[in-house]
Fold these 2 entries.
Entry 1:
Amino acid sequence: MHELAISQGIVESVCEAVPEGKVLAVTIEIGALSGVVSDSVRFCFDACARGTRLEGARLDVVDVPGLGRCGSCRREMAMAELVGRCACGNPFLEVLRGRELRIRSVEVT
Amino acid sequence: MCATCGCSGSPGEASTLLLLHDHGHPHEHGHAHDHAHGEAHGHVHAPHGHAHEHGEAHGHTHDEAPPSTHARTVQLEQEILGKNRLIAERNRGWLQGRNVFAVNLMSSPGSGKTTLLERTVRHLGKSVAIAVIEGDQETRLDAERIRSTGARVVQINTGTGCHLDAEMLRHALLELTPAIGSLLFVENVGNLVCPALFDLGEGARAVLASTTEGEDKPLKYPHMFRAADVILLNKVDLLPHLHFDVDRFIAHVRLVNPSANVLSVSATTGEGLEAWYRWLTARDVSARADR
């Protein structure tokens, strides 16, 4: 259940980066290939935010789709999961995008 | 609780660190977990304009409203695991500066990590100094097993935590102070999911799977197998009694990690371990895994 760890990381990072004010909303990016499930982070976030300046804050999750490149023919293609196969037959794709685990911005008063 | 990990119980609860000395009684240290704070890189935007519905009467002047009541957006653009990554890079520099080759050993529970380490220490311990950091939720049973081989060992108990993080390793390194030029094994908590996400600052990642698990483990846990520099298939001595297709397992590994060394071994009988010892001695990370 590393999504709990991720949620805790969000709350602590925001508290440090924004030392004052009530946090109304947090926008994060979660890549489709990051190994982290957005719904689970949402589920954990409220509990982690309780008792902090993030309590009651809205969590906006931007899902970043996976993008891979074939190591053989160099074609780029969408990747829904880490295990992918290129149309040319090469079974291994380099990940170009989709591993994001980022806090983009926060809305504070 | 570690800064990136909410899974080790209530805030303030500490993981524990035990250095096992030769005379047998471990010294216990609280794990303060005072993570270094990364700088906030964000820049603060000016307060945004006050939005009004069309036709709404403008009943107050903006100049009079205290600025603190206005919502403003702060751009952070910060890695959620950035703090762990920062500490991991410090650990990596610390280890490289002392020419210590640190191997993060990961697997599901019961794959044979501790047995592999016991045998490895007994075999290589004569020619190179070896130290071990043992990660488990509870007990120092594994550390006791390793200590009996003669290696220096620190046990980290993570409580309810499901993985080691870079800060835990940092504390363990300070406690253990591995010798210059030594080999350091970090036996992670038995788990094929969470440890894959947490860089410790290790020099290489070794993932162990065993023939009593399924051939499809690499496909079910691609993050773990993709990030491995070397993959050991353990318990091959049991193959005559099992329906386990080694070629099929290796084919599955190749789908998620084409470059990792794959070694078939038995930590119990010693079969195939020469290749593992050669890999450790050569410190071969040329087949750098995709992290």
Entry 2:
Amino acid sequence: MKKMKLVMVGNGMAGVRTLEELRKIAPDIYDITVFGAEPYANYNRILLSPVLAGEQTVKDIMLNDVDWYEENGITLHLGKKITKIDRVKRLVIAEDGTTAEYDRLLLATGSNPFMLPVPGKDLDGVIGYRDIYDTNAMIEAATKYKHAVVIGGGLLGLEAANGLKLRGMDVTVVHLPDTLMERQLDHTAGKMLQKSLEDRGLSFLLGKNTQELLGDEKGRVKAVRFADGSEIAAQLVVMAVGIRPNTALAESAGIYCNRGIVVNDTMQTYDPRIYAVGECVNHRGTAYGLVAPLFEMAKVCANHLANFGIGRYQGSVTSTKLKVTGIDLFSAGDFLGGEGTEEIMLSDPIGGVYKKLVLKDNKLVGACLYGDTVDGSWYFSMLREGKDVTEIRDTLMFGEANLNRPGDTGHEGFSKAAAMPDSAEVCGCNGVCKGTIVKAIKEKGLFTIEDVRKHTKASASCGSCTGLVEQIIMATAGGDYSSASKVKPMCGCTDHTHQEVRDAIKANKLLTVADTMKFMEWRTPNGCASCRPGINYYLISTWPHEAKDDPQSRFINERAHANIQKDGTFSVIPRMWGGETNSSELRRIADVVDKYKIPTVKVTGGQRIDLLGVKKEDLRNVWQDLGMPSGLAYAKGLRTVKTCVGSEWCRFGTQDSTRMGQELEHQLARMYAPHKVKLAVSGCPRNCAEAGIKDVGVIGVDSGWEIYIAGNGGIKTEVAQFLVKLKTHEEVLEYSGAFLQLYREEGWYLERTVHYVSRVGMDHVKQKVLDDAENRKALYERLLFSLEGEADPWHEPEKAQVDTRQFAPLNV
Amino acid sequence: MSNEWKVICRVDDIPVLGSRVVQRHGQPNVAIFRNSEDKIFALLDKCPHKGGPLSQGIVFGERVACPLHNWSIELNSGCAVAPDEGCTQRFAIKVENGEVALDMHELNAPSDVAKGLAAA
């Protein structure tokens, strides 16, 4: 098939990101040509401030060098400015006469710094602060001249001033409003910022209106004169008073612009062959100057350029971070407050900390943090999710680390990445230290948590260090952290979310993995190791007895019905109801260990026995000789019900916890779920079975049983929440079953009950399981129906959909 | 050097999107894969990462995910998908009349697991 021609005008971050996204999903449909007015390949413009400050070099900030274009078959024209678009002939024409034909055109012309229209603006030494050229001009001026004036006390102006000061110049910042960074900070925070910067030697002239720039006999600027008649000396004037989308080219071609190239939610302009992304764009009335929204636009645009046609950009919530080393400043959302909002403020002027959170309708709508920005990404994600914060309102200001949730492991108790030295291990699962992460972010131009996971493995396994890694990304990638969007697609094979897939399976009675992928228009023929197991689970849990389990869509453990070990052998854990056994079972276990020379026998945390080191070809015989049911110790489903001895033996026992536990285990024995489920039953509030950290924890008290749900013992230890108090065994079975069935039907694959309940809210669970008795009974019925006739995989493999060929090796 | 083909099994003996393991004398196993288009591949049953048994992984497209740490391995080349790096040994395969054959010379030659190659 002949390739279409895609021409991109502009070579900046938003445009090139679009090409990268396009390359990921449809690498072969276009011949791509790029025209860049600057003489450089694609660089990280956000990091120009660290370059100015001497902390990085131009080479450090290159994202894609010229080799990348060549490797990807992209024709690159550097230093060529496109001056005309002929929309009829579908041609772009550069200043030097070079032309290129297009089938589709992508405009990524960025923005221009706004230059105050005052007399003297064209003198030598009067520049904007936009690109490498400007940065080099400032670095050079710092070696030759003494006085610099930065007009504009916003984000960019302050970063320029800081950099020039570090380079040895005398710097004054001129700002028309009374408060610095008035678009991100309120008055109090602005004054604190000003004081910090004054302590570093910067001078400020606030409330001053620039009238004229005066030049010397050689045509270089020498002073700035204000409306009130005063003057200050300046041999370098940097204008940082805002940016304007660069729409000149689009306008000349008759494309509709309104303070930005107007695009719809698919990044298309009024000419259907022409798309636009980045700072040059006006989307729903907003022009963005921060990188995260631009990257979101790039992804949507790529989706449409690739003819998939399903992406939609609906605007972004943004956050900003000042990149002046040693000053911590973060703001997001609507931080100025106003009618209908409430403010929570923490102000410690001597300590240099000021934090303001703005709430509306019990949701966080804005945050402004000065001096302590550690919780910036946490507040930001709450802002984006629109989460109801009523339950955590009184500790909200004290940050994520103080939220009654201890138990994070794998990083020595650090909760602030900034406090960690480079040598400290951030990711305990994969042994990745802070320095490695920082290096990868800088060297490979990483922006998101997904990027960091792929390239360093940090946060790629259990995820308990994710918060720390996000902090490191925020601090190192410069500026706004592009956090993962609120609702993620199931995997790289689709843009559909878990909920969408669940709903579709239910609404359309889909019964096989293949049907589901076809119906939902999967991008790959058989999905991948992430989505297939998930889809398989959704099918069998939504349509029990009608959808058949697909063993090839199960992870090895659930396919072989044993836990794979690091050397390729397996471990065998037979069922021990409620943690009780007898001499006959123990004898059979001992005999099997001797007969098959099993290297290790270990007692598990789930109160049963584990035989480790069994070869795959021996599994079936081991199971037969044991004559015990499978413990399903490998399943995304019920594991065990731990018990303490209770009233049968214990002098403190108020209830027969062992019997209750065994009844629960018998009932739920072969239940599959979105993730593993662990229960425990204790016979009195001493809680010797540790029921407080279980998915369902049952605690016997004198007058009955207390039920707790959504606890979690590992990765991030979470205490279970009280659900209800019951009187009888039957009630315990019914309520536990109903809650678990709710979780089975609504949970997303690989969500533990703690994540599920945190997502849907305890109120939702109570409403469905406690308040609505009929619904509870219906849930319980559905669970029992699902479990009817579930076969033991060790002893009835055919009925349990086990493919036994896997146990028989072939011989030469 | 010409091939000495030996029939190991039938295509139907291999689960679709699955594998079978070929045991060798004193040498690491070989894994034979079958994808959804009935294409057959054979690799050393050791992941280039930490030697995990690729035969036990989930097969998708023309790749398999190692069951130990989830590295994606291209079945055709035996190499890990970027940004992971490393390759495992590939074995020649012949499919004729629904039967799968491997080359005895390759099967008998010692495998250099560390290099992911047949030893020279």
